[in-house]
Amino acid sequence: MRLSGKKVIALVDDEFEDLELWYPVYRVREEGAEVHLAGLEKGKTYVGKYGVPATAEYSWDELKADDYDGILVPGGWAPDKIRRYSAVLKLVQDFNTAKKPIGQICHAGWVLISAKILEGVTVTSTPGIRDDMENAGAIWKDEPVVQDGHIISARRPPDLPPYGKAFCDALAGE
Fold first, then answer.
1. Per-residue model confidence (pLDDT) at position 92
2. Phi/psi class of residue 137: alpha, beta or left (left: φ > 0; alpha: ψ in -120 to 50)?
3. What pLDDT does residue 60 have?
4. Can you give the residue ranges of the DJ-1/PfpI domain (predicted)?
5. Positive or negative: CA dihedral 155, 160, 166, 170
6. 96 partner at 20 to 30 Å CA-CA among 30, 123, 133, 139?
7. Closest by CA position to 12, among listed 3, 25, 28, 29
8. For the whole model, what pTM was predicted?
9. What angle, rounded to 10 degrees, do the helices at 18-30 and 160-172 form?
10. Percentage with pLDDT > 90 across the chain
11. Does 107 qualify as catalytic in the annotation?
12. Contact in structure between 148 and 7 (CB atoms under 8 Å)
């Protein structure tokens, strides 16, 4: 398995987009990586927009980018909550500084905007936050998946297959 020994964080909060969390998590696990779900409260069960639960194994405050190889930020309404926490923003900034894979889909771009890491970066997202992405200095494209260095972005659930592959490829260093 090409991702054996790799560790990834997946951020959670209430109203995450169920498929945008679980599809990449399972895709990365299928390749052999270990994925830890992290939320504001360790042990809390967060509920997705469509009712699928996700229990945080760690709190954001416990995590360090140095201990992980990549991070996944799901969409839904959760990113608007997640981006309000300094621990999350520092974590994303640290992944960015280390040039480790950062996966974001749909509304997850809000977290990267608040982390102030999108200046000059080419990305995609749901068209609904295109203006937000561009106002943060990003170059926005309407494509299923856009990879600019270590930042991998996708628009919405139908783009999950190529997004999952692109994130796994980046994690594998390919």
1. 98
2. left
3. 96
4. 6-167
5. positive
6. 30
7. 25
8. 0.98
9. 40
10. 99
11. yes
12. no
DSSP string, 132-163: HHHHTT-EE--SSEEEETTEEEE-SGGGHHHH
d(CA 129, CA 105) in angstroms, rounded, equals 11
Q: 1 Cβ partners below 8 Å, 6+ apart?
A: 31, 32
Strands of the 58-59 sheet, one edge to the other: 58-59, 34-39, 7-11, 70-73, 102-105, 151-154, 145-148
Report how far apart, in Å, the C-alpha atoms of 71 and of each of 63, 127, 134, 153 are: 11, 22, 22, 12
11, 83, 77, 82: which is closest to 49 by C-alpha?
Answer: 77
Over residues 80-125, the pLDDT tens digits come to 999 999 999 999 999 999 999 999 999 999 999 999 999 999 999 9
Give the Cα-Cα-Cα angle 93, 152, 113 (nearest 5 degrees). Answer: 45
Catalytic residue among 36, 107, 150, 168: 107
The pairing of beta strand 145-148 with beta strand 151-154: antiparallel
Q: Which of 36, 106, 150, 168 is catalytic?
A: 106
